[in-house]
Amino acid sequence: MLKHLFKLTWNKKKQNFLIVLEVFISFIVLFAVFSLLIYQQRNHNKPMGFNYENVWVVNIFPEDRARNWGLSDSVNNYHESIKQEAHAFPEVQEASFCNFNTPFAMGQANAPVKYNNKEIISNFYITDDHYANALGMKLLEGRWFDKRDNGMAETPIVINKMVSENLFGAEDPIGKVVTSGMDSVRKLRVVGIVDDFKDKGDFIAPENGIFMRMTEGEEAGSGTLLLKMKPGSGGNVESRLQKILSGAAKNATVRIDHLAELRKIKNKTVLIPTIILLVVCAFLIINVGLGLFGVLWHNINKRKSEIGLRRAVGATQNGVSFQLIGEALAMATLAMIAGSFFAVQFPLLHVFDMPAGIYIAAIVAAIGFIYILVLICALYPGKQAAKLYPAMVLHED
């Protein structure tokens, strides 16, 4: 029976070419959409690796950077004075200075990192000793850098689990020295490992992350203060805090953002293109469905004599209905065989560097969706064809 259906479909390949092409294009588009959706869903299910609730970001923009942040000693005193003003608020539980690339920020900083003959590209987060407490990060191994690291020849760093796997493999990274920079001249010593740090939003996969202790030369570039606040801290606290910090940060503009709000903004930048793609895909699927429905309906009107003859020689109503539905499914199968050939190239060629399981799941989802669409479009025309009476159809011819 299946061989017969495919033979009939192949013999009518010229008539069915356009609808097969539409199904083929729809399959490719659905494969791309499902790949994106499955990728984002898997990323959404992964833990953040830190706590963004009740964390505020204070950005300090000095009018005269050279005067305010000129010498390392004055910068350190400048930071400490601002921290003291922040800690004077009972609502502030922790304060930490860091570089501009805070979680959900629009900017990032990355550089190559080498260990023996292996090299990776990693995000770098320049932070002080209180960063982990401010974001509620949990150590998996080792410790966070602190005053014990003063005077070390190598800059202490904490790496995330992804860096540990990609750079060290099965080796224990604690105590290992790596080099960083385009010339690989800066030496960094690993003192701890944290969980993967998903700071680009809920739908973006975690990346290699290295947290580097802020040195004297880097303090001048750190105008961002993270504040871990007590739950329930509202607008009154924020306005008083901004007023006090603006007074402490002389000749500077102070802006306070909430990580929870920045997360929503970051997620929107990812979801809006996805929603647009879904709308375009929906229009395409509707057009394909209407086209398929019209072709099947037209075939019924053209094949009335054939249907009447089949009924006259003993074909049942269900047999006629299954015949037409089967032809539609066979036509879709031929289109998806061609589409699957191209889709399989994505995991083989590592396109977009997504895990192979995402592409395989997307192929299966696209095939299932196309079959359901074709079945829905073919069901009503097939039933209408089954209701044709042999005598009436043959009499018309």
Question: What does it look like?
Answer:
With 397 residues, the chain is α+β, with helices and mostly antiparallel strands. It has two domains: 2-45 and 266-396, no CATH class; 55-258, no CATH class. Helices cover 55% and strands 18% of the residues. The chain has helices at residues 2-11, 13-45, 65-68, 72-87, 131-135, 161-168, 216-219, 235-248, 259-302, 304-312, 317-343, 345-349, 356-386, 390-396, and strands spanning 55-62, 92-98, 110-115, 118-127, 139-142, 155-160, 177-180, 186-194, 209-213, 224-229, 252-258. It has a six-stranded mixed barrel with strand order 3-4-9-6-8-7. It has a four-stranded antiparallel sheet with strand order 2-10-1-11. The longest helix is centred in the C-terminal third of the chain and has 44 residues, at 259-302.
Number of domains: 2
Major sheet: size, sense and barrel closure?
Answer: 6 strands, mixed, barrel
Give the N-terminus to C-terminus distance in angstroms.
28 Å
Number of helices: 14
Which percent bin holds the helix content?
A: 40-55%
**Strand/helix succession:** HHEHHEEEHEEHEEEHEHEHHHHHH
Report strand order across the widest sheet: 3-4-9-6-8-7
Q: Given the helix and strand composition, which structural class is it?
A: alpha+beta
Low-confidence stretches: 66-71
What spatial form do the alpha-carbon principal axes imply? elongated
Can you give the mean pLDDT? 84
Estimate what percentage of residues fall within beta strands.
15-25%
Cα-atom radius of gyration: 31 Å
**Tally of extended strands?**
11
